[in-house]
Write a structure and sequence with these properties.
The protein is an alpha+beta fold. Helix content is 34%, strand content 43%. The protein is built from 5 helices and 6 strands, in the order αααααββββββ.
Length: 143
């Protein structure tokens, strides 16, 4: 199997796995998953969550509705305050330049030439972080 076909198969499989893991949920569908928690939010927090936006003081259920499940959760305690960081990831595609030598035979002679055959890779990359203190949103940032 050629390198080009292998890379395409990998790309398709990685995309299918990524979509399977992340799903195609929306804030509206996530709100329906957790109606009790969603209905307990303030009007301001409910509106922000349905728009996929954050507001300081939101609880974890509101952030789940707004952004979905994080890729990783990191917990710590600093100066007596419990902190939790939700890290969201995205799939990053990259093309790595590569050339290969191609050989062919004609009339008993062997000829070769170089063809551009880039390698395509995909990998997860941390892209966004939500910081909770005492169970409430204290801040967020792009990574």
């Amino acid at each position: 199997m050629s390198m080009k076909i292998s890379a395409k198969i990998f790309f398709v499989c990685a995309t299918v796995v990524f979509l399977g893991l992340t799903g195609c949920s929306t804030p509206q569908s996530r709100a329906k998953e957790r109606p009790e928690a969603f209905n307990k939010l303030s009007d301001k927090q409910r509106a922000a969550a349905l728009e996929g936006e954050l507001v300081e003081g939101m609880n974890k259920a509101a952030v789940y509705v707004a952004l979905g499940k994080p890729g990783r959760v990191l917990q710590s305690r600093e100066k007596g305050v419990d902190r939790e960081r939700w890290i969201y990831t995205e799939i990053e595609s990259q093309e790595i330049p590569a050339w290969q030598r191609v050989y062919h035979q004609s009339d008993g002679s062997v000829f070769s030439h170089t063809e551009y055959d880039p390698i395509h890779i995909q990998r997860p990359r941390d892209s966004f972080e939500v910081i909770f203190e005492k169970g409430k949103v204290a801040g967020w940032r792009d990574l």
